[in-house]
Amino acid sequence: MGLRGALIILGLLIMAIVALNAYDRGRIKRGLMALFEGRFKGRGVIAEAPSEDSAPPWSERRVLRPETEGPAEGTKTAATEEGGLEEPFGSIDFIVFLPGDTMVERDVALGIYKQSEYLIDKPHRLYGQREGTQSWGNLSRDPATARYGLLALALQLADRSGAVNESELNALSQIGLKLADALDRPTRFNMTFEQALERAGALDKFCSTFDVIATINVLADSAPVFRGPAIERAAHEAHLEFGARNIFHRKNPEAGACRHLYSLANLYQPGSFDPLRLDVFQTQGLTLFMSVPSVPDPLAAFTDMVEAARVLARRLGGKLFDADRKPLSDAGLRAIRTQIQDMADHMVQHGITPGSLNAVRLFPP
């Protein structure tokens, strides 16, 4: 046998040894996994251990604390009154109106709008006054058979991500001009670009000032952990229902823009509850939180949230803590209530009522 043949045989032997080792490692790994799953099957699933890095669902937003100061008395924000235009508009939109004497079908107008609306990042909508009723409809949601007289192209001037820029104003205006050309309609703007940018800046400051969360943490005390079935029973006793984002919510009993008054989540990552594993779930902490500007009568909602927190603490064997996980006393709760009322009053002074349609659009849940 020549040298070449010997090298080939040697290479084949090496490949066989590598394959055998890989097979053995895989068999051992599968055996360990089976042993692990058999040993721990049915055991409780505990949330991530408490640490400074465990971020609750509201961690990206400013949170009220007993010692936090409210907005400055002289804060200049959106000083325009809400509602100066017909619904669904308010003081937070840049609008291109397209009046017409004849009716236009939904799909005709919507098709032109959809060709270019991807150029705009901020929330934007095409509305129309429905034939017969004169009520406003969102063309993206109305049935295909709908027809409209007056059209209105609206761009929200700000939200918690910042203010609209001139490029987006221009993009919306171009869409309006395309609609005008295609439908043979004139255009009318509710404000100039300069006015829109000035108002967008004021609304951006308004969002930065009032985008605030009120929260109460319930941490395990007499019990080492809170178990899933007990959490579910206590939540129902506190009038909380399981729902969106796999957390519990206190529904708004009144019809309005705000669907939920406050919510209950796991304090530790990922913050949610797996409904399929709730029977084996465990955690050492829960958090109740509400968006102050998004809730109608936020002081009343916070009072209701305090009572829910006390129900949870009593039923689960826990205690109330603030956002910094310091014990939450009656004095601390009174301080937070004072801040909430102060914020609500300031919002009204700046023309946007907590829990109103414009408030929910500026501070979506």
UniProtKB/TrEMBL annotation:
Matches recorded under PANTHER family: CELL DIVISION PROTEIN ZIPA (PTHR38685)
Origin organism lineage: Bacteria, Pseudomonadati, Pseudomonadota, Gammaproteobacteria, Acidiferrobacterales
Alphabetical list of InterPro entries matching this protein: Cell_div_ZipA, ZipA_FtsZ-bd_C, ZipA_FtsZ-bd_C_sf
Example GO BP: division septum assembly
Residue ranges, annotated region (Disordered): 49-83
Protein family: Belongs to the ZipA family.
Name under which the protein is recorded: Cell division protein ZipA
Domain of life: Bacteria
Organism in which the protein naturally occurs: Acidiferrobacter thiooxydans
Cellular location(s): Cell inner membrane
SUPFAM superfamilies for this protein: Cell-division protein ZipA, C-terminal domain
Residue stretches spanning the membrane: 6-23
